[in-house]
């Protein structure tokens, strides 16, 4: 099963050199052990554009959809045999990036 591991952060700063090095080591491990599907970091919320086309005409708005102290800074998509394995990997990812993470299964 695949799991989304969302990286939650509360500042507009990028990973430090040490954090990025730890993330790279963690990513290499995910690949080597067959857990890797995809991962990526995201720009700051101020770089977001919200698009609403529910009314048939697309409306574009600058900035994040939700104002919040915390935001999605990046994510991993992992392939794990069960939730326990996914949670263990997520805990290691949290340590590597020095941020909180949230784990959710794909449906």
From TrEMBL:
Residues 1-97 form the YCII-related domain. InterPro entries: Dimeric_a/b-barrel (IPR011008), YCII (IPR005545). It comes from the Bacteria. Belongs to the YciI family. PANTHER family: BLL7171 PROTEIN, BLL7171 PROTEIN-RELATED. This is YCII-related domain-containing protein. It comes from Acrocarpospora pleiomorpha.
């Amino acid at each position: 099963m695949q799991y989304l591991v969302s990286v939650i952060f509360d500042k507009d700063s990028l990973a430090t050199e040490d954090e990025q090095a730890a993330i790279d080591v963690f990513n290499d491990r995910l690949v080597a052990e067959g857990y890797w599907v995809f991962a990526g970091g995201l720009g700051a919320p101020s770089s977001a554009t919200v698009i609403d086309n529910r009314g048939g005409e697309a409306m574009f708005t600058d900035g994040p959809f939700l104002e919040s102290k915390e935001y999605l800074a990046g994510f991993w998509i992992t392939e794990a045999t069960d939730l326990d394995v996914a949670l263990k990997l997520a805990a290691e990812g949290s340590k590597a990036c020095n941020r909180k993470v949230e784990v959710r299964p794909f449906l």
